[in-house]
Amino acid sequence: MAKSAGALFVARHSGFQKDLPQQIEKAIRFNGFSVVDIWGICPGRYTKKNKLNPKEIEAILSNLTPFNGPVQENIRKEYGLHYRELSGSSKQAPPPLEIKAEFEPPSDDRQDVVLLGDAGQRILTAGEIFCLAGMTAGMKATQKNEYNITVLRGPSISEIILSKEQIGYTGIENPSVVIAVGQEGVNRRRTLFDRIAQDGLVLADAGLEIPPVRCEVLRVDFLKQKIGSADRALASLGILAKRRRVITTDMLRKALETRFGSRAQASLDLIEQISLEI
Amino acid sequence: MNYYLMDGNEALARGAFAAGCRFFAGYPITPASTIFDTLFQLIPPAGGICMQGEDEIASIGYCLGASMAGMKAMTATSGPGISLYSEQISFAIASEIPIVIVDVQRLGPSTGSATRGADGDIQFLRWGNSGGLPVIVLAPVDVRDCFVLTMHAFNLAERFRCPVFIASNKEIALTRESIDEKDLSPIPIETRSAPSDADRFLPFHIPEGRMTPGFFPIGGEVIVRQTSSTHGQDGYITTNPEEIQKNQIRLLNKIESFVDDVTVYDFFPSEDADTLMISYGVTARAALSAVSQLSPSIKKPSLLILKTLWPVPEKIIREKARQMETIFVVEMNMGQYRREIERILPGKRVRWLGRMDGNLISPRTIAEVLNHE
User: Is there a single domain that holds both residue B256 and residue B273?
Assistant: First the structure.
């Protein structure tokens, strides 16, 4: 079994063999996975009644296929050595993304923003961008996420807090802005709509059913603007920025450039193109 | 000043790397997998090893082997993986093998809810080994703690030669938070030391004035004997009850009697408080926020946030509770640390608030309980 499983060195010995230490040493010194099958008598069990003796072990072993060292057909590069060769040439990990505070936020007030969507709508990425945008204006940020274990199914929710002060509890009890781009997210947090501040804002995809609220509601027809489902959360940030609500276009552009580097252009075009027409 | 946006798992992985962790083995599990992802980018380019084991039992086994060979090793999993680690945890205690074990807690029992948080493993981490001898358990509150406490965890593992757990929680591990460069400052690193007389090395000999044996790596020039069986100072099995009992007492005392050195906590006193609120983990953030939400007519409680859960910081708890009429324990499980508080403070009125449904305990809920005192 050891041979067919790929062991590079297989040996079989009796525990009473005089040169056993040398044989074990050979196996240890072999540069690769080695198996030594040693036959002996358990020193702690039924020693007196055990009829097995060194001679008998010798006899059993002589009837088995002998193994005595390297298995030619299995010889290959040793795993650890190979690992070190590959890892030695792997690239240094990038340092964490650095953000500098360089803009003024539209408001110094704490902002509690909830993104409600479906899995696959890049809600978490939009949430991250939102945090980064806030940080470019010196705001502290937290992003608490909720999703199911299912992939591309179920709700995807992100709660973002931006504040000049230290943020304690990361959940949101009274949102100032709710962005709704997916029905599953809305359904999961229906009770949240009751708790939106009166001067708050709901920005919702025109195709969604949302509970009644007392605050301002912006309905955006993403379909008409030919904005795909996976882009709607980010497009919503673009609308907020154009309205100078919570973030500005400068903050959002900087966040996208920092996060995506040379790959940022598509996102920058998206937030440029999104129309306020509702 | 530079700022970063990071989640708890990334901060934890970076803390481990800063503490000298150069060996990681784990088996993927939500919500712990991104610790592996981050270390996979950090460790191999630095000449270390970061690997996925064939399962959890093998993964922690690799780590113990690496640690015996002198590396600083860590593994990370969630509750279901800790169950599988159990035997190897006992081995690490028995054989005094330093290791850092991260439990990013999810809502249990069993596989429970992979993407929802809880602090339901904190008694399990302490008692999930055979023999019941102590381990160290640290509980981060936020992203910064994930970085700092993990560095401490490595130092404690080296110093006390035992498993040190980080009791994280999905709600810290996968929550992003802005931090600044000060938050990522490294601390001095401790490392196991070799005894001076290599010729007469006994793997479990305790030199005068020490609580742990000296260390030589397995595979080096000095022959080292390791065993999970009850052993004497030479590493061979012993049946001598006196020698056995002496060793058990040392394994207990090497941690319990240094509780002050291991204790990390935050204390937020309120003037004239008659209630002491005690919390830990992500719930401590809600507890702190709740204090500012109380009605003006309510006496504000003092708040003790424990970041070392095991060994239980009994002295600090007694000291902070001394003038208080009521102790109010808030935790994200069905009452696990309340047991410790009641044990330490007999005669005190202990109130408790807990929740284990995947939602955080909110400041509003805590404030409501305090307002109706």
Answer: no
